[in-house]
Input
Amino acid sequence: MEIVLAHPAGYDLIPDVVELSKIQAAASGGKFVHVNSMDEAFAGADIVYPKSWAPYEVMQKRVPSSTQATRPASRPWKRTASRTTPSSRIGSAPRRK
Output
């Protein structure tokens, strides 16, 4: 299985987790790819799971007011019909109550 993780530049994830994902994918005969292009991630995808998160740097600080100031422009990072093929399935995260 090939997993493609995409996020805007500046929304970096915990480096150890990304590295572990690559190692586990390779150990199971799969592939883990980490990109900064939503279009690249959607290309040929069978399943898409859009999820929002804050940049790792912001999460380390846990300062809500800094999120808006440091957030890269994310408007182009919305799932649209033009990015979705008829054969791809869209997942969504369960909402907290």
Remarks:
- The mean pLDDT is 76.
- Helices lie at 15-27, 38-42, 56-61, 64-70.
- The two ends are 33 Å apart (CA to CA).
